[in-house]
Amino acid sequence: MELVYPPVVALAKTMFRVLDMKIEIDGAEHIPATGGAVLASNHVSYLDFIFCGLGAQPAKRLVRFMAKDAVFRHKVSGPLMRGMRHIPVDRDAGAASFRTATEALKKGEVVGVFPEATISESFTVKELKSGAVRLARTAKVPLIPMVVWGPHRLWTKGRKKELTKRHVPVIIKIGEAMEMPKGTSPDALTAMLKERLSGLLDAAQRAYPEQPSGPDDRWWLPAHLGGTAPLPPVAAI
């Protein structure tokens, strides 16, 4: 029985209404109504997991996110993360979290992964870790790419959080499950995933209904769209 997750989802939806957030979900039909699946998302903000989870709501699925174990040790977030059955990742003992995630997938859970591992300060898709591909292949479940665009305007790396900012649009785009041909290497599949995520993110960015209000507000756009976010090589240093 889910005692923690549904109330948290209800609270998040209430906050979205209070802040009058303009949330658009495109492609929710690609998330299966039953059975295991890996959701692989881009990473632009500290709030991405909330909106990725929201993207699975039309399919009535609860996503178990893989997150660094420090979050589980926090006195506030720890009980919530454990109650929602998210999966702690110890970067010094990654095999254990991989096994836990694989078992969850085989039991029919949806597992959320951020294959960039950390927030992309360039607001483009960084080089990916291969874990999402390896999880989907090991558990024999679909690998579904998805992106979020907009939550970084509320709280992202290197910027003051503005969690009470109103009327912020958020676009969530979910793509079709990736084909994973037998014999294709994890590295090749990860490159394909990066390409898919980049395409979805580009579409979300170009469909976004707002533009910066002035020169000082251009920080939230990537450089190739006229923003002042650092170029990818600079952000990776």
TrEMBL record:
Span of domain Phospholipid/glycerol acyltransferase: 37-151
InterPro entries: Plipid/glycerol_acylTrfase
Coiled coil: none
Transmembrane parts of this sequence: none
Top-level taxon in the UniProt lineage: Bacteria
Keywords from the named record: Acyltransferase, Transferase
Transferase recorded as keyword: yes
SUPFAM superfamilies noted in UniProt: Glycerol-3-phosphate (1)-acyltransferase
One annotated GO molecular function: acyltransferase activity
Matches recorded under SMART domains: PlsC
UniProt-recorded name of the protein: Lysophospholipid acyltransferase family protein
Highest classification ranks of the organism: Bacteria, Bacillati, Actinomycetota, Actinomycetes, Micromonosporales
